Structure formats: C-alpha cells, structure tokens
Automatic annotation (TrEMBL):
InterPro entries: AMP-binding_CS, AMP-dep_synth/lig_dom, ANL_N_sf
Protein keywords: Membrane, Transmembrane, Transmembrane helix
GO molecular function: long-chain fatty acid-CoA ligase activity
Full protein name: Long chain acyl-CoA synthetase 8
Record SUPFAM superfamilies: Acetyl-CoA synthetase-like
Alphabetized PROSITE patterns for the sequence: AMP_BINDING
Cofactor section: Mg(2+)
Gene Ontology CC, one term: membrane
Membrane-spanning residues: 20-39
Length: 716
C-alpha cells in the first residue's frame, strides 16, 4: 500500500471547462432532492436477548435465526466436503486467478537502495473443477512422497492460488495444516514447526534460504515442497545443499499424484483442520486448534449476511491466508461460488511500490466487486485521496468538499438518500474517478483485524460507494463473532452476533463495567457457539484460562475485550482489559482507546501509548507520516540534513504534539490521556520488523522491549 496516494493522479484529469455549471447543478439539485429522499431513520432489531448457559451475563443472538448456523447446506460438514461439493456445483465457473509475470527487474533508487519492479499481465484462471483436480493430485502426490499419515504439514508462504490448493489437498488425506506467517521471525518459526512436529512443509522458494539456515534446529521436517514458478536460476543448487530433507517442487508433487491417484482419507467434523499460530502480540505465538466444523460454521454464517453474494462476484485476495480473517473470507467465497483473484499489497494499485511504471495494479486489472481490508489499509486509502484533493485545490477541491458533505448528510439520514438520484449525480461529477483506485466496481467491503475509525468508515462509504461489513472475531473464534450488516449506517460498531454465535457480556467489576449499566449493558465480551475453537495446541493451562464449557456442553471463549450492546442488539468494542493501566493518582487510562483517537492525526502513521503506573501521565512512541512531516518542515522553513534529524528536531516534536492535542480535544479525551511527552521514530513498523502483526496491529510488548531506553528517558 506504499505510495497509494499517488494513485489519485486521476484528479489531474479535472479541467475547468464546464466545471462552474457542474458546481451550480451540484449545489442546486441536492437541495431540491433532500426533502424527498431523506426520510426518518428506522430502527431495525438486529440482535435479540437470549437465555444461555454458563456464567451469568447479558447474552444476544442474531435475529435472523433461532438456531445456531453450522453448515451452508446438508452434507457440507467439513472443509473437504465443502470444497468438493462446491467445486462440483460450480464446476465450469472460474475460481482461482493469478496474474501472468511478464518480466521483472531490479532498480536502484537515488539513495542506493535496490527495489524489484514487476511487469504483470492479465489474470489467468482455473475453474472450480480444475481446482478440485489439482487438489486431488496434490493429495495423491503426498502419499507418493511418503508423508507420514500421523504427522502434520505446514504452509509457510505468501497468499496465492497454490496456497489454497495445497490447503485443500492436505484435507483430502485428513492432514492437519499448520499455518505460519511468511513474515514470522526465526525463533517463532522454529518454535511453531517443532511444537507441532511438522513433517512436510510447503513454502515459497524465497523461504528455502531461511529454512536452510535453521535446518539444524528443525527436528521433525522430512519433506519440503516449494512453489516452483518463482525459482531462481541457481535454485537447484540451493535445493541440492539441503541434504537432510526431500525437496520437491509443487508441480512435481501434482505430477506424482496425477500419475498414480490415491483414494482420499476424509476428515471428520470435529477433527482439527488447522493449527493457526497467532501473530504473537505478546511473547511466542500460540497455536489455536481450529476444527473443520469451526471453519464451515463461520463461512456459512457470513454468507447469510453479505448481500447477493454469488458467482457474479469477483474477490481480490491479498491479505495473509495464515491470518484467520483472510482464511475465513476465502472460505466464504468458496461457499458462494465467487471467483478469487490473487494479488499482493506491493502490487495492489497502479503505483504500488513493486509495480513497474506503466503496468496496471491488481485492482485495476481484476476490477473486484468484493474486497477485504484491515483498518490500516483503509486509512491509507483515505489519506491518499485527501492528499491528492489538497494538492489539486481550487474548483476540484470545492466540488469534492460539497459532494462529500452532501453524501455524508445523506448517509447519516437514510441509505436511500445515500444511494439514490443525488448519489448518481455526485458519482458522475466527483467520486467515479476516485473509485478507479480499487478498480471501480467495489460493491461491498469486509473489514476486520482491528477497530475501524468512524471517519474512515464514512470516507470509504462515500468515496468508494460501498457499504462496509465490519467484523469482530479472533483466531480463537475462527473469526466468527459479530458482523455489521450492509444496511446499518452507523459507525463504531461491529454489528450483531453472526448466526453461528452467541455473544454474552460478563460484568468486570474491577474495571467498572457492569451488565447493569445504563443506558447500555457493558462487560467483557464472551463468545459461544459453533465457531469456538478447540483450544491452544499443547497448552492446556492457557486453554482452561480462557475457554469454558457450560452445562449444555457449549464452549465459550473469554476475549478480554470490553464491549457494550446497543438497543438494536449491535455490539460496540470500547476497551480491552490488558490495555488498561491505573496511573499514580488513581485514574484509569485505556491505551487502545487513546491510540485509536490519536491515530486520526494526519501526522501519525503509527503510535503506541505507554503508561507507567508510578507516574501520573502517559507518553507515546510515534512514527510520523513521512511525507506529511516533510511537507510541514518545508512550509515552516525548517532546515535539516536528513529525515532522521528532522524527527529529532524540537520544532517537529512540538508540531506533532500540537496536532495530537487537537485530535484529543475533538475526541473528548481527558487531560491525563494526552501524552505529555512523545518520541518520534523515523523507521516504519512492519511485520518484518516484528513490531506489528500481519494485520498491522502493534505488538505492545515487543515495542516496549525494543524502545525501552526511549520510554525510560521520557519519564526522567
């Protein structure tokens, strides 16, 4: 998503000819239409109270059905069964698409850094029937390879079509799959593979070098299968150097299976499909045991919520499949017969960092109708658009401002006003060109992984012309907890429980959150139902701590998040138990709440608020938005030798503190919640650095350890 703001070059196409007339029309028609289109809001009951077992609390179920959803249709009780049945049902429809690599080159930037640039062609597709055939061939190839039927396999690779095919192929032989982030550090990688005793590992070729370096530490690996289309010229030499493993390409395994098919050994509903290692925001990652029934239940439930989901849709897949959010999303697409086109964050848009100049980005070529995103990416979309609007200025900016305000009023009044005749006018004048950034055909977006700010949600609604289904879930709930519905025009909420789940609030007296609170009950969010996973692998103590079964046998997961239920049954996440710190004078500060408010400053790319309980104020580590800070410095006449020096300048610190004070006031933060001191850090936090998760959530403990000295100095 780097340089995404440059995609807004479409604004340069605005001319002045006829613009004055368009402006007059744009002002006059909305006034005329407003009284006709904006009706009184209707309150729709989305969740209703329910009596459930277990610990006392205030429980809600989805209003769509009395019984919890378990399967999308009869017989689809496992991922293996679901995959086979869906592939036969949609046999001739396109399923998995991959862009053809035409060429790649290494370019050198002015500062000497080297970057890879790629020229990509159109998407090349395989059908549902072809995907099933390839998965069956891969499964048979595993048998020929000699994979131990009693051991597990792992996928350690970036998201791509072969990832999904391998995933389904393993299930054809009832093999539990361990999913590992491609960006995982060495210690966590060794821990994950050894703890689960993985014998067969599937990876990108680029990961082979990393694996070769730690091969002596990996005690159970026997077979390594690599994706061969990205194999470099000297790849065979590297493969030959790993003498203690059998190393084969993915195509070789498919060929082995095609030559000698083996009968499937299919899993059961309660069998463990996936051991998914969490991104490890604290310490080493934990392996969550997800059953086949868990994945199927979440997928079945979400298909009831996304409107008109079907084979006419196209989904852009680029988030990590090792994350439960993307895995659940692609499982939903499988249920509905949707086409899935694969991309990456580095090639997503026309000016993404890895795209060669003149080459179209993934979104421009695919023209998706559906897309999943984490809030950090949507924030960058918003910032990129606003930056280009400011640069254009003049009439284009006036048109944008008027159109945005009118659409905002319509959205907050009624959805008919938002998507009716007035909408068509503003789309024609302003928003149609903005939408080309993501292909121009997005009709629905799924958002998860972290809380989405109300400002960004509204911005995407208006500028991209699409409702956002904001989801709430965890790896431990197989992403299945709550999901906002397409016709819910509120912000800051995550919707009612999915039809596969109950959500219960349990009072947390110590934190001051009680189900008896008025006007809305509050408490710790506890999720129960068919999506609740089996627990943590090889960690019974931690499992007992956060999982509980009630008297009926239903499993409940204690999330540690604090929520409240609105009268219509929708959940709002308002706090987190672990993020609350009691200051010296007795005030409680919620670090996550403060960070969510301060991140709205245009100067902020990333922020971590820190509070020492022995002091009466908090501090913050800040990664500034590079271009925004440099633009301010230029306008302010600040002289500096490089960006590192700029971040150390007292003037820069003072300017960002001023901005934080403004957004804190707008968010109605208390005085003690505004960081008294900040430290500007020039280097961005990335999953590769180990400072944020794959979903770009901060890893608080790792940040505290990495910047221990900086935090201490701010309290001196």
């Amino acid at each position: 998503m780097e340089k995404l703001d440059a995609d807004m070059s479409v604004w340069n196409s605005y001319g002045t000819r006829g613009a004055l007339g368009a402006l007059l029309v744009a002002v006059a028609i909305p006034i005329l239409l407003s009284t006709m289109l904006l009706g009184k809001k209707k309150v729709k009951q989305r969740g209703i109270p329910v009596q459930v077992g277990g610990e006392a609390g205030y429980a809600i179920r989805n209003s769509r059905s009395r019984e919890l959803v378990e399967i999308p249709w009869k017989g689809a009780t496992t991922m293996a069964a679901l995959f086979e049945q869906s592939c036969k049902k949609h046999a001739q429809q396109r399923f998995l698409g991959t862009r053809k690599l035409i060429s790649k080159e290494i370019v050198t930037a002015g500062d000497g850094r080297k970057f890879e640039k790629v020229h990509l062609g159109d998407y090349e597709w395989i059908t549902y029937r072809e995907a099933l055939d390839r998965a069956c061939n891969f499964a048979s190839g595993l048998v020929r390879l000699g994979h131990n039927v009693d051991s597990r396999a792992a996928i350690f690779a970036d998201t791509r079509a072969e990832w999904f095919i391998a995933f389904q192929g393993f299930f054809r032989q009832d093999i539990t799959v361990v999913t590992i982030y491609a960006s995982l550090g060495e210690d966590a990688l060794v821990h994950s593979l050894n703890e689960t005793q993985v014998s067969t590992l599937v990876c990108d070729f680029k990961q082979l070098k990393k694996l070769a370096a730690i091969s002596s530490k990996l005690t159970t690996i026997q077979n390594v299968i690599y994706f061969d289309d990205d194999e470099p010229e000297n790849g065979s030499k590297l493969c030959g150097s790993i003498s203690n493993w059998i190393v084969k390409s993915f195509s070789e395994i498919e060929k082995l299976g095609k030559e000698r098919p083996s009968p499937p050994s299919l899993p059961s509903k309660n069998g463990v499909a996936v051991i998914m290692y969490t991104s490890g925001s604290t310490g080493l990652p934990k392996g969550v045991m997800i059953t086949h029934g868990n994945i199927v239940a979440t997928a079945a439930a979400v298909t009831t919520v996304v409107p008109k989901l079907g084979s006419d849709d196209v989904y852009l897949a680029y988030l990590p499949l090792a994350h439960v959010f993307e895995l659940a999303a692609e499982s939903v697409m499988l249920v509905a017969g949707v086409a899935i086109g694969y991309g990456s964050t580095l090639t997503l848009t026309d000016t993404s960092s890895k795209i060669k100049k003149g080459t179209k980005g993934d979104a421009s070529v695919l023209k998706p109708t559906l897309m999943a995103a984490v809030p950090a990416i949507l924030d960058r979309v918003r910032d990129g658009v606003l930056k280009k609007v400011e640069e254009k200025g003049g009439l284009a900016k006036n048109l944008f401002d008027i159109g945005y305000k009118r659409r905002l009023a319509a959205v907050e009044g009624s959805w008919f006003g938002a998507w009716g005749l007035e909408s068509m006018l503003w789309d024609l004048i302003v928003f149609k060109k903005i939408r080309t950034v993501l292909g121009g055909h997005i009709r629905f977006m799924l958002c998860g992984g972290a809380p989405l700010s109300g400002d960004t949600q509204r911005f995407i609604n208006i500028c991209m012309g699409a409702p956002i289904g904001q989801g709430y879930g965890l790896t431990e709930t197989c992403a299945g907890a709550a999901f906002s519905e397409w016709d819910d025009n509120s912000v800051g909420r995550v919707g009612p429980p999915l039809p596969c789940s109950y959500i219960k609030l349990v009072s947390w007296e110590e934190g001051g959150y009680k189900i008896s609170d008025k006007p809305m009950p509050q408490g710790e969010v506890v999720v129960g139902g068919t999506s609740i996973t089996a627990g943590y692998f090889n960690n019974e103590e931690k499992t007992k701590e956060v999982y509980q079964a009630d008297e009926t046998g239903m499993r409940w997961f204690y999330t540690g998040d604090i929520g409240r239920f609105h009268p219509d049954g929708c959940l709002e996440i308002i706090d987190r138990k672990k993020d609350i710190v009691k200051l010296q004078h007795g005030e409680y500060i919620s670090l996550g709440k403060v960070e969510a408010a301060l991140i709205s400053s245009s100067y902020i790319d990333s922020i971590m608020v820190y509070a020492d309980p022995f002091h009466n104020y908090c501090v913050a580590l800040v990664v500034p938005a590079h271009q925004v800070l440099e633009k301010w410095a230029k306008e302010a006449g600040i002289n500096y030798s490089d960006y590192v020096e700029l971040c150390d300048r007292t003037e820069a610190v003072a300017e960002i503190k001023r901005s934080l004070s403004e957004v804190a006031k707008a968010a109605k933060l208390d005085k003690f919640e505004l960081p008294a001191k900040i430290k500007l850090l020039p280097e961005p936090w990335t999953p590769e650095s180990g400072l944020v998760t794959a979903a770009l959530k901060i890893k608080r403990e790792q940040l505290k350890a990495r910047f221990k000295d900086e935090l201490q100095k701010m309290y001196e």
